[in-house]
Write a structure and sequence with these properties.
The structure is a homodimer. Chain A is elongated and about 70 Å long. The first copy, chain A, contains 17 helices and eleven strands. Chain A has a seven-stranded mixed sheet with strand order 7-6-5-8-9-11-10, with helices on both faces. By secondary structure, chain A is α/β, with parallel strands linked by helices. Strand 10 of chain A pairs antiparallel with strand 10 of chain B, so a sheet runs across the interface.
Chain lengths: ~425, ~425
């Protein structure tokens, strides 16, 4: 029920004509009536999802919906007004500082909000395109990227180790069946991308963005390839080098603390899993140039990235607090990587439901690590990351976000798979 | 060897300084020297492929290449000049009327020309983009489309029956192995797209562009679905209806002689195999609107189309003589179908090598039907179609053309496959 119909119903019950919409209630209606009206405004803005919005001291809207997906409670009117002026940014802020609390399943509640927003938005509007065009995420120049990556990935390897599982892979896993465990699915993902690139022993691979180095080690150990892996996160590179040395693979895997734009050399395969989100649209042609230079008319490449169905910025609170500079492209926008360099796109797979599942597993580990987490970080930090993980589950589960794996090859190369059956042959 | 180095070598042998490039030879150098110079100009324009260009009365260039991919012979200087002014259009014209002849393997020769052109073109140039932007294929308005389709598909079902094989499917086949026969591969293609759409008994399917109706019958017979299939080719629709009646499937497959823009109703699946080439970029958003209306927030769709790595018009002679109004889009251009309607792209497969193989099989049947063909059509028509088929083999074999199968679903739908393993499970 939106604010207008709520107001209409109240007025009709009193036998008076309904007021013009969006007129502020009279002064005597302050107190809980004003709060109810403000809550109703927010509820309508959200597309009237089936959930309750409430003030800590009692006012409530949306309670008629049965059964509600959950209840969001605001500590006071200042919080409510703040969220109402900019819900996409301020909800996250208020949830983090505890002035907004959520009862019920946080993921389910966020999914409900995403679905209601989609129904309200309808088809791609001019406004949406204008917002996308105006949006300026944190710049991804060489130094900008280093700052952005430092802010996210150098929080501390110990923090990520609490909830990423044994593989320390911080990208969408691949679940052969929905019953697979997180670790099984991360290993299956690594095999999936290696098979998509048809890696064979003795080949050379360049990896653009390598996280904590897990995939590079997997490729070297199980596919017999030599890997040069690039990353600008100092903490991740240090972790990866230590691990390669410990596992006796330092001779076959080289971790380089440098930007993808500085990659040199020629390789049989170009692999990039979960870096494109940080590249920025303006640099897509440059990324394509790097792959083009690396492959030099032969070989094959794979780019794995979060994406979207329609152009639009990352959820702004996540861009501000969690992933500065990040942008999830549409497949159409990704064409700017491939088209200038005459790359053939051979295979695209959308794994968004697998990312929802991955994030559910991460969130469960995150919650299970609560005690340990609280000895390392303050409550605000924990709530911020919980909201990010839960919101990401909701984003992928509702189709607000996509996960694209794109396999490509130089246009002139006929060294391409005849079918994709080899990916599924056991 | 290009014209400049040819001229330089000649002049150096005579002890005189080389002339400035692109200066016409002196009058006394006419006759075969002028012809050689003109042939060399053309050879250089083509990117100096390893083949011979010759005049019927003797002049020849490119003979040094060992072994040449073939020889192209011009009947006279008028023909050569005509081709030189506009090779992309006039080569096809001259080949059709017999004033250009080819010795050696026509497909191999055209592949050589495509490869040399790619090497010369290098990366996407401003010029190439400008040409693509300026290119105006035959318009695909409602009546324009009908004219365009009539010109290609209503030549006579008997003609196509001579070389399409038993299935009368005039789209890229799917070869589980390269050894599969044409008919096997066409049936495998139909099963491949049906499995991609996960058709199950009792569902409804709308087919946009149905050719001679083979896929619609296959879906009804083997997957138990009801099909409404749209096509604006009168001859194809008449053929398809007669066949459905003969095979006892008229109650489950309805062929409608109408434009895809006039499709009404709601369906579980939207299938379009080999129609997008005729839609035209300007109508992509409309095509997406039709799919959006047909699926209404659920179900799934598949579009199968010839494509390109970089934006550019269809080879102009083929657009003029064979496929008026046709345009092969890049995957980035295809985004205009999906993005405005919040469709999720779930799966893209590039089958260009399968189309090269399909076309090789068609060309072999076409040549084998030569005698019968000549009782129906004149030599010019036969040569025109031979060049089109051979050129298309070369286009797909060299990566000049692509073949995309795109599976999509409404963004809000979670009724999407968990993995693609079901496509390969036997």
């Amino acid at each position: 029920m939106n604010s207008e119909s709520l107001a209409s119903a109240t007025e009709r019950a009193a036998g008076t004509p309904p007021p013009p919409p969006a007129v502020m209630p009279r002064p005597q209606a302050q107190g809980s009536a004003l709060d109810r009206w403000l809550l109703a405004q927010l509820h309508a803005h959200l597309g009237s999802p089936p959930l309750e919005l409430a003030m800590r001291d009692g006012a409530c809207v949306g309670a008629g919906a049965a059964p509600p997906a959950g209840r969001v409670t605001f500590a006071g009117r200042a919080t409510l007004l703040s969220v109402l002026t900019d819900p996409a940014m301020r909800f996250g802020e208020a949830y983090s500082d505890g002035t907004v609390t959520v009862e019920g399943d946080l993921v389910g509640l966020l999914e409900t909000v995403y679905r209601a927003g989609r129904a309200r938005a309808g088809r791609d509007s001019l406004l949406r395109r204008a917002i996308a065009a105006l949006h300026r995420p944190h710049s991804n120049t060489l130094t900008g990227s280093r700052d952005n990556i430092h802010r996210h990935y150098d929080i501390g390897n110990e923090f990520y180790a609490l909830w990423l599982g044994n593989t320390m892979a911080y990208t969408c896993a691949y679940y052969p069946t929905p019953q697979a465990t997180l670790d099984e699915a991360q290993v299956a993902k690594m095999d999936h991308v290696c098979r998509k690139l048809r890696l064979t022993a003795g080949e050379s691979v360049v990896e653009a963005g390598c996280g904590w180095g897990t995939l590079a080690l997997h490729m070297a150990r199980h596919y017999g390839v030599r890997v040069r892996a690039f990353n600008i996160s100092r903490e991740q590179v240090a972790y990866a080098r230590e691990r390669a040395a410990r596992e006796g693979l330092a001779g076959r895997v080289e971790y380089i603390e440098d930007d993808y734009r500085n990659i040199s050399g020629r390789y049989d395969a170009f692999m990039s899993v979960g870096m494109l989100e940080h590249v920025g649209l303006a640099n897509y042609e440059t990324l394509g140039a790097v792959a083009h230079r690396c492959l030099a008319g032969r070989g094959r490449g794979l780019i794995h990235s979060i994406g979207r169905n329609q152009p639009g910025p990352l959820q702004p609170w996540i861009e501000r607090r969690i992933f500065p500079g990040a942008y999830p492209p549409t497949l159409g926008e990704m064409a700017a990587i491939f088209e200038p360099w005459d790359f053939s796109i051979l295979d695209v797979e959308n794994l968004r439901l697998h990312y929802a599942q991955t994030l559910r597993h991460w969130l469960a580990l995150f919650e299970a690590a609560g005690e340990r987490m609280r000895t390392m970080f303050d409550e605000r930090f924990v709530r911020m990351w919980r909201l990010y993980l839960a919101g990401s589950v909701a984003g992928f589960a509702t189709g607000t976000l996509q996960l694209f794996q794109v396999v490509f090859a130089p246009g002139e190369s006929n060294d391409i798979p005849w079918t994709r059956a080899h990916l599924y042959s056991g």
